[in-house]
């Protein structure tokens, strides 16, 4: 094969052949080294690789180049069945079918003597190490099981409905299985009463008629205070009880003391959290820098609960924490990652009590940029516990008995340091998406009282910005010490999604000129241009859906949303396992004593941990979202026939999804109910268009709807579209060309600055509280 052309540059076919021969392990650097390219050739190489990616010859993801539709070396997969030889076949759990078509098949190779925890079966979710087979027929990959996450379910969760003749039926809580009821004989009901939430083992299936089941566990009445969140907990196999060994270790733990620690008990650190927070894992302090070489600069101290001191590698506490991956926050309860004695007691930075912490001291220049940082293992004593609203009220001139004495010595320096840090943040220009987060307030009986949108205060932004600075400092320190770590990464949007966004914006006459490297500022300019315009909610939704989802990885490919080259989670070890790993790595890197990351941890083993906790994070997000859907469906169940105003939040071939303005509830308007004419699905416009009238219903449209049906257990609502007012009337589809409506200009008198919402879901729907943590407002931000 010809390796170079007449100009001495490598031939396209030679580059493609090299990528294929080194699947998953090739980047620009490796290609340049293979073909002896100098720095002057790098621009030409990047241009050629971009062309190959654009025409689908190769796939460029992160810093890795591979064949199209190739898989990473380690991934989470679901075992879907067996082939004709009886071998297990799996598919990737996360796969973008729009971008990559059908997910590739993986043949599972089981060793003769599998290790404990690696024996898998059909419908199991597993962590695999995969490699291409390079075979002409059969699956393109073979995989080796590293770990089995979830054993296949033969148990179903549902509501028992008693029958007059005895026994009953099980109505599954899963939306997808809601129409597949089970028959439960009287002898198999085991005392279940009508309306009880029960788990049922399938005991017999039939070709015709209902399958049969046996009640295995009664979880209480579906009308009880805790039932709604229990549905999600059991449906997603979220561990509810800690192992006895973990509980014993938690009870035996001793409070931290000065041994091996610096004494920071006189530093006036304060915690700022929502008023109902139960644990406090971060405290902050700031003061002007008295260094004459840094006039106008600040010293910012961020102290984080020292969880690594209590949760040592290989212990029962560690195993339980890794299994959970993160805490899960429901409106009525928290399923914590760590036992209460650790999370709410020994590690919580409560006022007046000595607590162990891992602190970072950061020096900010007058331009807001971090000049230096140092890490310290300390013993601290929080000066005060403040809420966001309380701190903000004091700064706004309304101090109370607690904040009054703190205003001048503590709060004003904190806000001044934040104003300084904000200069660098604004210059960095991270992705600015203004997507308000709703919070459900419950009555004493656990039912919904009302849904509110909490005010977005500078107090929130202050804490968030200081946490970002601390997270960056942790990643930089560990890279400097050449220690493995788990990064928080966020990939830039794919070329396909950027192209789809550009095509959509073209229908609105909104310019979207991409030149050079993709940056968040490109999307920010679009959003700023539409500030205050009717189309702003629509465009915000589409921009959100163009973004990738953040995840954990032992490989660093940056954080696109925050516009940062390196980023790690360090500031919430009470509720996230990733942060605990980073704490251990810092303890090891800086020789800070006990609880260090073991020498056995490598980028490969941490890659497996990162894949696992990315899955548990998404599990938590889905459980939290479903619980909110069910609570609101219960809340609206007695309002059948009522009218509401909402906004179209999704458009599919099945119909329109509408989000109600007052509660944020989502429901479906089936396409068959839109009228007598046929409606086409216009994917580019995110719209349904009538074939006869050219009436168009588009993502972001404001509509009036009537509630027709509510299914509280499934969390599903069905609406019908009412006759639209002139304000909400569907638009007629406009022709292209000169007759199109004039381009949209920036709204006068509005600031282009928006609230930040950098991390997004790959599914394309806005996050409904990644950490819908009761009392964890700043932790709810997916930093």
TrEMBL record:
<feature type="region of interest" description="Disordered">
    <location>
        <begin position="272"/>
        <end position="294"/>
    </location>
</feature>
<dbReference type="InterPro" id="IPR022966">
    <property type="entry name" value="RNase_II/R_CS"/>
</dbReference>
<dbReference type="InterPro" id="IPR011805">
    <property type="entry name" value="RNase_R"/>
</dbReference>
<dbReference type="InterPro" id="IPR040476">
    <property type="entry name" value="CSD2"/>
</dbReference>
<comment type="similarity">
    <text>Belongs to the RNR ribonuclease family. RNase R subfamily.</text>
</comment>
<dbReference type="InterPro" id="IPR050180">
    <property type="entry name" value="RNR_Ribonuclease"/>
</dbReference>
<feature type="domain" description="S1 motif">
    <location>
        <begin position="641"/>
        <end position="722"/>
    </location>
</feature>
<dbReference type="GO" id="GO:0008859">
    <property type="term" value="F:exoribonuclease II activity"/>
</dbReference>
<feature type="compositionally biased region" description="Basic and acidic residues">
    <location>
        <begin position="275"/>
        <end position="288"/>
    </location>
</feature>
<comment type="function">
    <text>3'-5' exoribonuclease that releases 5'-nucleoside monophosphates and is involved in maturation of structured RNAs.</text>
</comment>
<protein>
    <recommendedName>
        <fullName>Ribonuclease R</fullName>
        <ecNumber>3.1.13.1</ecNumber>
    </recommendedName>
</protein>
<dbReference type="GO" id="GO:0003723">
    <property type="term" value="F:RNA binding"/>
</dbReference>
<feature type="compositionally biased region" description="Basic and acidic residues">
    <location>
        <begin position="750"/>
        <end position="762"/>
    </location>
</feature>
<dbReference type="InterPro" id="IPR003029">
    <property type="entry name" value="S1_domain"/>
</dbReference>
<dbReference type="GO" id="GO:0005829">
    <property type="term" value="C:cytosol"/>
</dbReference>
<feature type="compositionally biased region" description="Basic residues">
    <location>
        <begin position="764"/>
        <end position="783"/>
    </location>
</feature>
<feature type="region of interest" description="Disordered">
    <location>
        <begin position="724"/>
        <end position="783"/>
    </location>
</feature>
<keyword id="KW-0694">RNA-binding</keyword>
<dbReference type="InterPro" id="IPR012340">
    <property type="entry name" value="NA-bd_OB-fold"/>
</dbReference>
<dbReference type="Pfam" id="PF00773">
    <property type="entry name" value="RNB"/>
</dbReference>
<keyword id="KW-0963">Cytoplasm</keyword>
<keyword id="KW-0378">Hydrolase</keyword>
<keyword id="KW-0540">Nuclease</keyword>
<dbReference type="Pfam" id="PF00575">
    <property type="entry name" value="S1"/>
</dbReference>
<dbReference type="InterPro" id="IPR004476">
    <property type="entry name" value="RNase_II/RNase_R"/>
</dbReference>
<dbReference type="Pfam" id="PF17876">
    <property type="entry name" value="CSD2"/>
</dbReference>
<dbReference type="InterPro" id="IPR001900">
    <property type="entry name" value="RNase_II/R"/>
</dbReference>
<dbReference type="GO" id="GO:0006402">
    <property type="term" value="P:mRNA catabolic process"/>
</dbReference>
<keyword id="KW-0269">Exonuclease</keyword>
């Amino acid at each position: 094969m010809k390796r170079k052309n007449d100009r001495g540059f490598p031939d396209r076919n030679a580059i493609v052949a090299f990528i294929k021969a080194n699947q998953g392990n090739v980047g620009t650097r490796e290609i340049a080294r293979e073909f002896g390219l100098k720095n002057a050739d790098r621009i030409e190489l990047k241009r050629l690789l971009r062309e190959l990616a654009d025409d689908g010859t190769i796939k460029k993801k992160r810093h890795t180049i591979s064949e199209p539709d190739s898989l990473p070396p380690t991934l989470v997969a679901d075992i879907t069945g067996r082939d004709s030889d009886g071998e297990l076949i799996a598919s990737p759990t996360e796969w973008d079918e729009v971008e990559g078509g059908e997910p590739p098949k993986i043949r599972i190779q089981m060793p003769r003597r599998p290790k404990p925890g690696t024996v898998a079966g059909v419908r199991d979710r597993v962590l695999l190490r995969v490699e291409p087979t390079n075979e002409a027929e059969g699956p393109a990959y073979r995989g080796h099981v590293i770990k089995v996450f979830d054993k296949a379910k033969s148990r179903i969760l549902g509501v028992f409905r008693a029958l007059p003749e005895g026994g009953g039926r099980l109505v599954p809580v899963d939306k997808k299985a809601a129409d597949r009821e089970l028959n439960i004989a009287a002898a198999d009901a085991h005392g279940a009463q009508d309306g009880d939430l029960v788990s049922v083992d399938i005991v017999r299936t039939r070709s015709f008629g209902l399958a049969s089941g046996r009640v295995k566990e009664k979880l209480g009445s579906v009308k009880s205070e805790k039932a709604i969140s229990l549905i999600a907990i059991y449906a997603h196999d979220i561990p509810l009880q800690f192992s006895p060994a973990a509980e014993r270790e938690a009870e035996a733990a001793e409070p931290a003391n000065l041994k091996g620690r610096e004494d920071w008990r006189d530093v006036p650190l304060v915690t700022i959290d929502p008023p109902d927070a139960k644990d406090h894992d971060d405290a902050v302090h700031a003061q002007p820098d008295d260094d004459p070489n840094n006039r106008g600069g600040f010293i910012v101290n961020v102290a984080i609960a020292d969880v690594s001191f209590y949760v040592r590698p290989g212990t029962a506490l560690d195993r339980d924490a890794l299994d959970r991956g993160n805490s899960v926050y429901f409106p009525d309860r928290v399923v914590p990652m760590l036992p209460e004695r650790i999370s709410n007691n020994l590690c919580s930075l409560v006022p007046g009590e000595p607590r162990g912490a891992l602190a970072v001291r950061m020096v900010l220049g007058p331009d807001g940029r971090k000049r230096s940082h140092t890490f310290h293992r300390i013993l601290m004593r929080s000066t005060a516990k403040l809420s966001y609203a309380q701190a903000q009220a004091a700064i706004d001139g309304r101090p109370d008995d607690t904040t009054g004495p703190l205003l001048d010595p503590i709060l004003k320096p904190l806000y001044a340091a934040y104003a300084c840090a904000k200069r660098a943040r604004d210059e960095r220009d991270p992705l600015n998406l203004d997507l308000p987060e709703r919070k459900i307030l419950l009555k004493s009986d656990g039912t919904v009282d009302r849904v509110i949108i909490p005010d977005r205060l500078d107090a929130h932004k202050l804490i968030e910005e200081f946490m970002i600075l601390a997270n960056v400092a942790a990643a930089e320190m560990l890279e400097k010490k050449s220690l493995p770590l788990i990064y928080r990464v966020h990939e830039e949007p794919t070329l396909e999604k950027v192209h789809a966004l550009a095509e959509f914006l073209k229908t609105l006459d909104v310019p979207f000129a991409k030149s050079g490297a993709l940056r968040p500022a490109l999307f920010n300019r679009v959003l700023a241009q539409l500030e205050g315009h009717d189309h702003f909610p629509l465009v915000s939704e589409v921009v959100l859906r163009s973004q990738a989802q953040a995840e954990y990885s032992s490989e660093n490919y940056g954080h696109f949303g925050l516009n940062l080259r390196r980023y790690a989670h360090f500031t919430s070890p009470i509720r996230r396992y990733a942060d605990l790993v980073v704490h251990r790595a810092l303890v090891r890197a800086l020789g800070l004593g006990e609880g260090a990351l073991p020498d056995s941890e490598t980028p490969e083993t941490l890659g497996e941990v990162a894949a696992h906790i990315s899955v548990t994070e998404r599990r938590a997000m889905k459980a939290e979202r479903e619980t909110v859907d069910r609570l609101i469906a219960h809340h609206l169940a007695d309002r059948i026939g009522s009218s509401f105003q909402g906004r179209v939040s999704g458009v599919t071939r099945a119909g329109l999804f509408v989000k109600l303005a007052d509660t944020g509830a989502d429901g479906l308007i089936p396409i068959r109910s839109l009228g007598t004419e046929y409606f086409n699905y216009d994917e580019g416009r995110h719209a349904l268009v009538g074939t006869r009238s050219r009436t168009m219903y588009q993502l972001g449209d404001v509509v009036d709807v009537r509630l027709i049906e509510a299914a509280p257990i499934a969390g599903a609502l069905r609406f019908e579209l009412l006759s639209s007012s002139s304000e909400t009337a569907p638009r007629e589809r406009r022709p292209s060309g000169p007759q199109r409506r004039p381009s949209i200009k920036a709204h006068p008198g509005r600031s282009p600055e928006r609230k930040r919402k950098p991390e997004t879901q790959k599914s394309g729907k806005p996050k409904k509280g990644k950490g819908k943590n009761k009392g964890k407002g700043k932790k709810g931000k997916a930093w």
